[in-house]
Amino acid sequence: MTDFLQNCIDGLMFGSGYALLALGFTLVFGVMKRLNLSFGPSIMLGAYAGTWVYLNFSQNVLLVVLVTVIITVAVGIYVERLCFWAVRRDATIASMVSSFAIWMQLEEVAMHLLPERTYPFPAFFTSRVIEIGPFVVRSEHISMFLLTLVLLALLHLFLYRTRPGLALRAVSDNPLASTYMGINSSNILFLAFAVVSVLGGLAGFLILSADSQVTPFFGLWATFKGLIAMMLGGMGSLPGAILGGLLLGVVEANAFWYGGPVIRDISAYLLLFMMLIVRPGGLVGQRIVAQQQAAYERV
Predict the structure, then answer these.
(1) Contact call for residues 83 and 98 (beta carbons, < 8 A)
(2) What CATH number should be reported for the domain holding residue 10?
(3) Cβ burial, residue 257 (10 Å; 0-12/13-18/19+)
(4) What is the pLDDT of residue 257?
(5) Is there a contact between 13 and 214 (Cβ–Cβ < 8 Å)?
(6) Is residue 34 within 8 Å of 84, Cβ to Cβ?
(7) Cβ distance 108 to 219 under 8 Å?
(8) Sign of the CA dihedral running 156, 157, 161, 162
(9) Are the CB atoms for 50 and 232 separated by under 8 Å?
(10) Which residues partner with 129 through β-bridges?
């Protein structure tokens, strides 16, 4: 039981990073009803730019954070203008395929920027082991978990206490009604991508800082983990994205302990498969599925 509880604690620490990635996918999907497959590679390119600055110019960690976030935002805006703003709102497949093409482009840019497979990433946290009774927690994981909670609180305040946040939620709930209310949906979509990119850049920095390295596979990893966590919690649900990320972290931590790294990777897809069978809407997204089913029956 002690091992199981220790794994759950570790899983919650890892899952906080997954939750931030899932929030990025959820915000875009909730507003546009489209998936941005280049979200993970956008974060990777921002992290590569920060690493390049760290290796060639300055080892100031705050400068690395700033460069990572700025480049991630710039790439996110580039993706939004090219794959979503320029594509009709009802052309969901076209925007998703175009974002996948941008994914390949971003990976090529990252590989030319830093051609080696693995590079050190600056540690933002002091690394030491903290013992709490029979349990052990690493200080960098606690720091990442606490900073994630702060980011989630700031995102909640933005969405529920500011006019742009309320406009973003209005466009997500009913695009046509929000247009009649005078909300410029194009500006709101641009704002959504900017907010998501800031969140993604910070999430990427926190995750890589805890790992102390960055590889070309980080974009693929971030995309898969974010999508799985989003679907586990419920597509379009912000609380669901958080719960899905934490659940994924706990399951992977226990799977790694009891079965090894191969079982850990398989467990994520097995968990998603089981969730889609038992609750297709995710942990808290069943209401959305019920509404869509009722609308289909009325039609």
Answers:
(1) yes
(2) 1.10.3470
(3) middle
(4) 87
(5) no
(6) yes
(7) no
(8) negative
(9) no
(10) 138
In this prediction, residue 46 carries a pLDDT of 92
What tens digit of pLDDT does each residue of 127-185 get? 777 777 778 887 777 888 888 888 888 888 888 888 888 888 888 777 778 888 888 87
- For 174, phi then psi, to 5°, come to -155, 95
* CA angle centred on 164, ends 155 and 46, rounded to 5°: 55
Predicted local confidence at residue 110, as pLDDT: 84
Question: pLDDT for 182-212, tens place per residue?
Answer: 888 788 888 888 888 998 999 899 888 888 8
Report the predicted TM-score, pTM, of the whole model to 2 decimal places.
0.86
Domain limits at 116?
2-298
Find the length of the chain: 299
pLDDT at 136: 81
d(CA 8, CA 30): 29
Rounded-to-integer distance, Cα 259 and Cα 252, Å: 10
Token couple for 250: 């706990």
CA pair distance 36, 38, nearest whole angstrom: 5
Token code pair at residue 40: 């993970």
The phi and psi torsions of 54 (rounded to 5 degrees) equal -65, -40
**How many CB atoms lie under 10 A from the CB of residue 11?**
23
Ranges of the chain whose pLDDT falls below 50? none
Closest CA to 148 of 232, 74, 191, 204: 204
Task: Round to the nearest angstrom and report the end-to-end CA distance of the chain.
Answer: 52
124: DSSP letter = -
The number of folded domains in the chain is 1
Quote the strand ranges of the chain, DSSP E. 119-120, 129-132, 135-138, 213-214
Q: What is the pLDDT of residue 47?
A: 92
Sheet strands (E) in 181-264: 213-214
